[in-house]
Automatic annotation (TrEMBL):
It comes from Isoptericola peretonis. It holds the Pfam family MoCF_biosynth. Belongs to the MoeA family. Residues 217-354 form the MoaB/Mog domain. NCBIfam families: Glp_gephyrin (NF045515), molyb_syn (TIGR00177). The keyword Magnesium applies. Its EC number is 2.10.1.1. SMART domains: MoCF_biosynth (SM00852). This is Molybdopterin molybdenumtransferase. It catalyses: adenylyl-molybdopterin + molybdate = Mo-molybdopterin + AMP + H(+).
Amino acid sequence: MHDDVTHGRRSVADHAAAVAGLVAPALAAARERTAARVDVATLLTQVGAGAGLAPRVLAGDAVATVALPGFDNSQMDGYAVRSADLRGASGTAPVALPVAAPVPAGTQPPPLEPGTAAPVMTGAPVPAGADAVVRVEDADPPRFPAFDDAAGDPSCETTVRFAAPVVPGAFVRAVGSDVAAGDLLLPAGTPLGAPQLGALVAAGLRAVELAPPPRVLLVSTGSELAPAGATLGPAQVHDANGAALTAALAQAGARVTTRVVPDDPDALRRVLADASDDVALVVTTGGVSAGAYEVVRQTLTGAWFGHVAVQPGGPQGLGTVVLGLREVPLVAFPGNPVSAYVSFELFLRPVLAAATGAAPARRPAGRGPLAAPLDSPPALHQVRRGALDDAGRVRMVGGPGSHLLTHLAAATVLVHVPPGVAHLAAGDPVDYWELR
Ligand SMILES: Nc1nc2c(c(=O)[nH]1)N[C@H]1C(S)=C(S)[C@@H](COP(=O)(O)OP(=O)(O)OC[C@H]3O[C@@H](n4cnc5c(N)ncnc54)[C@H](O)[C@@H]3O)O[C@H]1N2
Ligand code: MOO
């Protein structure tokens, strides 16, 4: 779309579509392969014990075992009546009916005798024969009589008056009006959150089909890399990408296995050969640009490597590797830490979150005026790190350099400056994604 300005580089949208086209089917297949029946009560115990509700989607349709509601019940504290009995009721000619035994929630009432009104509590069954409920405050007297024994018999012979007719069905929650027994409750692919767990339990399901989070093999490449916490030797750097992307992938619903390999194709081949056979996706960082030791590029001879019209995150790779008997997608991000993280946000997070049900499915987007002018390379979609000030203006946090990890850590938004834009003035509107 911006080919005229991006000098033939792949657009962000095209690369995102290419990644999704390869990764989404692989994640869907992994879900099918690994789905298992999970006991709902066990799941609830784990969630309550603080395990959280890891992002998960239902791997199979959940079908209601019981209807919701399971029986006609009252929406209000009131009188269950036969609407026909109140047909002629008016303020000048109220209808007086004897009060029958009350119906507390959790009890099964006898049928309603014609010409009587039964006090019925919210959620209690509407007696057979009754077809409407009149709220207690709309009756005369506007309160229930005292009930003097456990059986709930009114303490004395008592009547209640109604000064208006009632439409059939008023304040009656009909059996199956939410879902009927045997009907689809939640389709496969529904993210499992709190309301869904409530619905599963309400509809009587004892077990559901769930897939474990997909396993991602995250490989940081670079002979300069040292593990977290290690004392650095000369020219070494800590593996920041392994840390940031482990967390980012996990938040997006993946289980992550991390590996660090030096700039040696044999070392990368060994890591791939040793990979667990449940890996659904490989993500690499580094080793994709124009240097003399580009380990990912040298190892994946059949993959696509090229430039996307974005900064940071320009050099990208995409292909497949054979792990065991399966062909698994491999998404190669550049090594600079901000480039790797921004690449994840642009290209992988959306498809991963859609597959796992992680929230938010998309980063919340906003638009606000710039606090200060900025320049941008017009051939590229620039993604800057920013924050909103108290007036809702978007200010930059640090410069565009893709090594400025501390500024990324301080940012709360990613600011998008589209291709074709070389300069924006203070006050010009920009789009942003909220990171937290
Ligand atoms: N001649 C050219 N050089 C470069 C180009 C180019 O087009 N022509 N592109 C530049 C851009 S843009 C990027 S981004 C990088 C991408 O390079 P690689 O993906 O090959 O990454 P490396 O060279 O391995 O590393 C780049 C940089 O990031 C540091 N790094 C790598 N991995 C980690 C990690 N896990 N944790 C922390 N830091 C890491 C690494 O030490 C380097 O400083 O290429 C430019 N060059
Ligand atoms: O794309 Mo690089 O990511 O600009 O530093």
